[in-house]
Design brief:
Helix content is 4%, strand content 39%. It is mainly beta. The strands form 2 sheets. An 8-stranded antiparallel β-sheet has the order 1-4-5-10-6-7-8-9, with no helix packed on it. Strands 2-3 form a two-stranded antiparallel sheet.
Length: 138
């Protein structure tokens, strides 16, 4: 996993359609734009506590996080049961689902076993994944 430092040099706003785009049956087109949307404001609530990381591997695919996706991670959000987190285990970063009740870090793919959080492992929760960005156009 690679850490990427976000840069917030300028505001970039893009048009946002006023109606949702159906992912099922098509609906009549609506040319009404609701407003402009700044992705920095929308995706990043606390810039000073936020970092980006690039996911590697397929262990979180059933949570919609695939190889190469960009993860937006907020250090100021409290990790709770079921949060998707970035954890440092003995200095190595991993993206997993936090199971506080059973002291586990879980994968979202059956081929990857859970990681037991024990005193023998130096485990630090670095932050909570708040968004993921996936490229769909090749």
């Amino acid at each position: 996993m690679r850490i990427i430092k976000p840069v917030f040099k300028r505001k970039v706003t893009l048009p946002l359609f006023g109606t949702a785009v159906r992912a099922g049956f098509p609906s009549p087109a609506d040319d009404h734009l609701e407003r402009s949307l700044d992705l920095n404001e929308y995706l990043i609530q606390r810039p000073s506590a936020t970092f980006l990381a690039r996911a590697a591997g397929m262990s979180m695919i059933n949570e919609g996080i695939g190889d190469g996706d960009i993860l937006i991670v907020d250090r100021s959000v409290e990790a709770r049961q079921g949060s998707i987190v970035i954890a440092a285990i003995n200095g190595e970063l991993t993206c997993k689902i936090l199971d506080i009740r059973r002291s586990l870090l879980l994968s979202a793919h059956p081929d990857f076993p859970p990681i037991h959080i024990t005193d023998e492992l130096d485990t630090v929760i670095e932050g909570v994944v708040t968004w993921s960005i996936r490229k769909h156009y090749i």
